[in-house]
């Protein structure tokens, strides 16, 4: 049996373009490949949606399109993404086949392309006998999101995390007994749930390890499901054991900056005792990273920005701390205003300053300064002179002396002074001898 599993669609006004592009592709590809059943394992919406929201209309259109080609099972996801009751409307959107909403812990058999649910958490003996007599195509074990707040009220907040794992383990073992009978009868068994497996890896590369996660791999394999289809984690990953397989398809699109790996949906081949899955990649957003060994090149960024619409972009550079202010972050943000997301990562290189060898052994400040000048190959006399000036005079006197010196410099730079300086460079005039002045005493000097 071919089963198309999509998960974490996250339809919302903010994600509409990405969600609808990727899910529309997934539905069309699943129909083209001849899938027998469609499964959506939680978080079809990103948050509460108004009835008139375009995102809700787009999601309903694709669910109706899928249901026109195959039976569809939709699982209740995280309550913050899918408030209780959100999926009830989708049960009315069936076409040639039904849309079944799994919003409680139960088992569901697909008989003659119709869904037959159990009255309780699992098929009891008489129900199981009736189902087997109808030769079901597949039986689903549905485990929607558990409300941890309600569990905390009943068992106490301190025990809620560990108690949840124990409760779920108990259910999975009980379901495993029923599924073992079904598998022995040649009926494929499929688990569907939404939660975190201890030891899985998130879309950001973080391993989830701790006592507050819903499932362990051991517990899921104990359910005796040929295929266990999970949602909630946005990264594709799987575990196998003796013909059984547990898998996350990841989110159908790339909704957050930094999500690793390909995005897509899973096309399953499930038979009693054997299950295999294939990740079919959807046309999700790209993530582009550009690195600079120094300040960013604005021309290169402008060229990249022209082709970065609807992409996630990360710009990284390294620069010393004394020049960090030359990078105009606002200008870079303006360039990538049409990108789906922009992250600026600056690595600031600290300036390393070493102490002058032997400076601490000098007694006076004058000697410390002279020692530093010696090591730095700097002239010491002007600096020591100014240091003594700072020590002996008050600030006002120092300021007046500086201003007076500046005034003198300005005066000597005047044009008249320049002319005088040029004249002084000429040879000095010679004094006339006494004999050369006799003409001054001539009687006819002032004669008429």
Automatic annotation (TrEMBL):
Q: InterPro entries, per this entry?
A: DNA_Repair-Maintenance_Comp, Metallo-depent_PP-like
Listed Gene3D superfamilies:
3.60.21.10
Protein name (database record): Metallophosphatase family protein
């Amino acid at each position: 049996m071919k089963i198309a599993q999509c998960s974490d669609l996250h339809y919302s006004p903010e994600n509409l373009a990405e969600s609808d592009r990727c899910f529309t592709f997934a539905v069309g590809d699943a129909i083209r490949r001849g899938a027998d059943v469609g499964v959506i394992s939680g978080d079809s919406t990103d948050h509460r949606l108004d009835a008139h929201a375009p995102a809700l209309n787009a999601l309903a259109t694709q669910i109706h399109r899928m249901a026109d080609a195959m039976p569809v099972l939709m699982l209740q996801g995280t309550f913050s993404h899918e408030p209780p009751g959100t999926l009830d409307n989708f049960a009315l959107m069936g076409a040639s086949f039904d849309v079944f909403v799994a919003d409680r812990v139960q088992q569901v058999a697909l008989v003659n392309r119709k869904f037959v649910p159990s009255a309780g958490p699992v098929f009891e003996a008489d129900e199981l006998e009736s189902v087997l007599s109808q030769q079901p195509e597949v039986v689903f074990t549905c485990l929607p999101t558990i409300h941890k707040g309600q569990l905390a009220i009943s068992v106490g907040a301190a025990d809620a995390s560990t108690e949840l794992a124990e409760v779920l383990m108990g259910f999975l073992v009980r379901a495993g007994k029923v599924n073992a009978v079904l598998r022995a009868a040649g009926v494929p068994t499929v688990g569907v749930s939404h939660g975190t497996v201890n030891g899985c890896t998130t879309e950001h590369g973080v391993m989830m390890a701790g006592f507050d996660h819903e499932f362990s791999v051991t517990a899921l394999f104990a359910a005796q499901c040929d295929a266990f289809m999970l949602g909630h984690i946005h990264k594709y990953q799987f575990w196998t054991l003796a013909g059984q397989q547990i898998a996350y398809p990841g989110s159908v699109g790339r909704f957050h900056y930094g999500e690793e790996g390909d995005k897509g949906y899973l096309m399953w081949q499930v038979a009693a005792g054997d299950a295999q899955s294939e990740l079919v990649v959807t046309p999700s957003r790209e993530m582009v990273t550009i690195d600079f060994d120094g300040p960013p090149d604005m021309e290169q960024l402008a060229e990249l920005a022209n082709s970065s619409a609807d992409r996630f972009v990360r710009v990284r550079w390294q620069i010393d701390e004394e020049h960090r202010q030359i990078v105009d972050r606002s200008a870079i943000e303006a360039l990538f205003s049409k990108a789906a997301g922009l992250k600026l990562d600056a690595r600031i290189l600290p300036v390393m300053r070493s102490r002058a060898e032997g400076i601490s052994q000098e007694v006076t400040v004058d000697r410390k300064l002279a020692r530093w000048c010696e090591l730095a190959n700097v002239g010491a006399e002007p600096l020591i002179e100014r240091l003594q000036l700072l020590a002996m005079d008050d600030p006002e006197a120092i300021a007046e002396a500086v201003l007076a010196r500046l005034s003198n410099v300005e005066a000597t730079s005047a044009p008249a002074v320049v002319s005088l300086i040029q004249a002084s460079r000429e040879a000095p005039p010679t004094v006339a001898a006494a004999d050369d002045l006799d003409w001054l005493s001539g009687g006819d000097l002032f004669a008429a």
